Fold these 4 entries.
Entry 1:
Amino acid sequence: MKDFIKKYNLMGKVIAAGVSGGADSLALALGLKEAGCQVVALTVDHGLRQESAAEAKYVANIMAKNKIEHHILVWQGRKPVSGVEEAARKERYRLMFEFCRKQGIKYLATGHHMRDQAETFLLRLARGSGVFGLSGILPLSERNGITLIRPQLDKTPEELKKYLQKKNISWVEDPMNEDEDFARVKIRKFLPKLAEIGIDEKRLADTAAVLAKTRDFIEAEVNDFIKNYVRNFDGAVFCLSWAKLKNLPHEIALPLLGKLVKEIGRAEYRPEAYETERVLNKGDDFRGCTLGGCELFMAAKRLWIVPQDKSGVVMRKQDWELFVNEHQKYRNCGLPYKARRAIYNKLKE
């Protein structure tokens, strides 16, 4: 932990930590404090199990004993009857991000460990992900203006439990971790079979780390292309030469288009590689499609990427005229209608 904190210059920083009561998250909060960080522990009570409120209070007691600030965030409202795991994950992050923004906290730590990395690699392999997906969970990433950190990716679950045992701290076992209705649980239970042929958690995590280095190189190339050849209209619209995109090496074009779609679509992840590839395989007669919450279309031999608008509301000509009176830079741009509408909607938010 201390090596991670030193490497990323986090000593003394205020770091929020998601703490569920499981061994990995309890070890995270305690380890961050020992490493010299100011820790604010956040426990999300999803209200999906009768025990959840008591577990949140249990975490509060442990944090209090270790002099760590702690807050319980409650998922209010109706709960879904299907897709519960994904919905709970999204709500958990939403509540923690919201807390961090309100408190001015720049860093949010999660307890992901080596086995999580191995499971993620296999899940994304099953979905047909490319280099960016298979590089797995990153040590640092940006989301919603918050830096997510994962300092325990080099630790196994067993190591984290031993750390807690030395401190005489018990942890909570989530029964959902045994529910084979979830794909991740199925993969977790299959990992021992892979280990029998030498494909263990460490091997999978090491493979993800190697791919992450490739990802870093490709990302640098992608960012350089975006800087020089992609026009950005206030984060509402991107456009670029279709010919330039098609002439790029496939290894650059694929993540490039995925990144642009992710940003305009305000998505958590890039579209799957096979979905993006379908667009890149289109010929010069390509006219448009939807992808990752975006609409892609051609105008003046350029590819335009705008948010998908399902409202059906038509922007009136007088609306645009009033808008460009306030934003003169857009008066003589010759923008396609869908681009004008996207820019108008974004800047009027």
Entry 2:
Amino acid sequence: MKRTVVSLLTAAALAAAFNQTVNASPRREPAKPASSSVLTVGATAVPHAELLNLVKPDLAAQGIDLKVVEFTDYVAPNSALIAGDLDANYFQHLPYLESNPEWKAALLPAFGVHVEPLGLYSKSAANAADLTDGAGIAIPNDPSNGGRALLLLQSKGFIALNPDAGLRATPLDITDNPKNFRFYELEAAQLPRSLGDVDAAVINGNYALEAGYNPAKDALLIEGADSPYVNYVVVKRGNENDPRIKALEAALCSQKVKDYIDKTWNGSVLAVF
């Protein structure tokens, strides 16, 4: 009986040793895909989200999974960035970013990509000179773009502004208005839809493009290529040197993107790199 027990124990030990040897032997594991780092960027649709989607494959080749979150207004993307829901946003120029003390304190422009010339549009007038006395003109209601709209009209001789108003002029700063234009301040995204209710509207380039307008052809008045309103990719302060942001900069400020901008928008969007 004792010999039987010993034999059984010996057999069990040999089996265990065999199993350990097999388990310890090298095995070929299936190759694992390269790790991916997610980069979430908020943007308005045109041209910002369109350009981000264009460079998705370039970032994916570097192991960066670019997630594009589209917004339809100008406030939410900065709020989401400050809250940590985004890694960056791409929709705004510097005067707009600096128009809000909270944004200015928490956020930083990482790099500039393009300019969208602001333009004056109308369904009733073929030329700006055709706007009648007392015409109603809609402009953006945020301080930076509202001032920008009035500066455009001043540059073409339609109004004069108090020189102390600067980039944030409002209709209250108009000192001369020969045609007695009436101004209506509306949310920027609503301006294209307002054209059925007013004589003309000064519309941001991205919203004009979304509405099917070609700013270079359809605008009665348009900013020149020397516009200081460059659109930036914006990040939280301290994150400007994040390798993912540097990779995004290289992808967006590339010849591929410049060629796409020139071919697609033909002067309605202007690359600045």
Entry 3:
Amino acid sequence: MSMRRKDFLKLGSSGMAALAAGAGSLKLKPKMMHKQKPVFNGTLKKGYMLDTFPNRNDFSISEKFRMLKTAGFDGVEPASGLSRDEVLAAKAETGLEIPSVCVSTHWASPLSSPDAEVRRAGLDGLETALYDADAYGASVILLVPGVVNADVSYDDAYRRSQEEIRKMVPLAEELGVTIAIENVWNHFLLSPLEAARYVDEFESPNVGWYFDIGNIVNMGWPEQWIDILGPRIAMIHIKEFSRQKRDDEGLWRGFRVNYLEGDNNWPAIMAALRNAGYSGYGIAEPAYRPEGISPEEFLKQNVADKMDEIFRM
């Protein structure tokens, strides 16, 4: 059952306090648990978000896959809506896996829009991503569920996005693909307790959370989010963020930092992932590339090698 506006507003500060007090139970509801994951063995596979490929318009899909293979990556995260034949050919040629697919329509056609036609386009994009994932052998798709702004209230975004996503849950369950919700500074789902609640209300093992480590540093501490979200986490983005650059140069400049040079407490983050039993892939989403370095050098030295260091912490 979707959340009504009046029920959301009734939650208030007392409701949020009760929610905080029940954080432990949020992590332990058996019927809300997602697919059992293998015990974390100290290593993760390295994936790369294709949309962040350096000079991406200069290379074909197959060239990008080959360069990622040479740099030492195990997998690739493409956007939805690409040529499936080209992606599958590149996958077969390189042997790289495709663990996840990023929905390409969630910004242009958010599921929180008051316009039914926009929501329909967003839902079509979500459906395409699910079928892309199925074709590629991916187990997860990344979805930004909605955006809160001056024209879309918080509670409307909550209600509308859940209503639309529920329409695709049966297909996700049929295909064995998890719809993983990501927090990306969209003014929505601003705490880990609320994120857990949002996921749990679908009552499906095929709705989870896509945890972007760098996105959370501006509003909190990633390791705390991991502790609360626990087995809801279906995939993670590896991203760096500097609070100092944010304060000195502006909000978005916080991302302009190399791995291991920002404010992520990687030992604490990796310990939290181990405690959560997370395994599988860490997907690189680098938001910064220094000048004067080739794409090949960047992929190997600035990303793949640094991810190896992080994963050993």
Entry 4:
Amino acid sequence: MFGYIMINKGEMKFREFDVYHSYYCGICRDLKRKYGAAGQFSLSYDMTFLAMLLTGLYEPETTAGSCRCNVHPLEKHRTSNNIFTEYAADMNALFACYKCQDDWKDERKLHKLVYGRILEGRTKRLRESYGKKVRKISRLMREFAEAEQAGEDSPLDRLAGLFGSVMAEIVAVREDEWAESLRRFGFFLGKFIYLMDAYEDVETDLKKGTPNPLKKRYGSPDFEEECRTILMMMMSECCSAFEMLPILENVEILRNVLYSGVWCRYERIHEKRCQRRQKEQ
């Protein structure tokens, strides 16, 4: 369900991209250190945004470094590591575990079952490290899975709201004066992610018979406009909450993601779908 919270590279300065990529590589290093190669395989750009958001808000001590990796063995890459790249790595691994469980239930892909079991074993200690937070996320994910399996009986807003609540808990790293604002931000970001995922997968889910709350709306002539309007409403609320946070460090990178990057994949999906429909006519 992740893969939507990314940069628009074409509108980013070279220096900004280097900084952004240093956090991505930093999370990758934390994943390898804590979860091995299996953890690295789960790496996503979504959690890079989370690490930079929390770094910008709390301004922790950040260690700059460089490393080579298996993907780019001949070239050194800058890395940025702090308590929030480690937190993002933990949440990345935890959520990848949930995603594998969900994929196994929906599609019965054996490799997802095996990979999920590996991650499950390596993320058990997170229940000790984050206790209450992980228990709440686990409860919300169970409710989400049950609601999703109910199919057409589950309203779109309930499913999006449950996933929004999951993201709210992930984003609100501390119970402090910023927790409420971060939860609001995470809630609408999560709803946007869920709705984008449903929008992208609706045709596939119709063919496979897998749950998707947009199935009934898909045949409507207003489907595309309705989806775009809902997505814009969610991201508008998300951006409004973001602008209330006192973030100065790398704020232009974060705005690149929220105001431009999140729409890149939407535009690709929308354009591809429109082209396919024109060919069918």
